Amino acid sequence: MNAGYPKQLRLTDAKDFKQVFAGAKRIAGPHLVLLYRCNNLDFSRLGLAISKKHLKTAVKRNCAKRL
How far apart are CA 35 and CA 41, in angstroms? Predict the structure, then answer.
């Protein structure tokens, strides 16, 4: 049993993240900001971006993304 998230369903390139940040709609809550944008694919894709403001080291940010 594989509990991972398939690479096809993830945003992996800086170009993909730039497109989302440039034309995104936004929903903000007290602990999370969700940016989303429609795509022309038959499936949704997910990308996580955690700022240094919240988790200082890359190790902690990567650990949070894996969880």
Answer: 17
Rounded Cα–Cα distance for residues 4 and 16 (Å): 20
List pLDDT tens digits, range 12-31.
899 989 989 898 899 999 98
Instruction: Show the beta-strand stretches assigned E in 1-67.
Output: 25-28, 33-36
Strand partners, 25: 36
Residues with Cβ within 8 Å of 51's Cβ and at least 6 positions away in sequence, in order, are: none
**The whole model's pTM is what?**
0.73
Q: Is the pLDDT of residue 51 over 90?
A: no
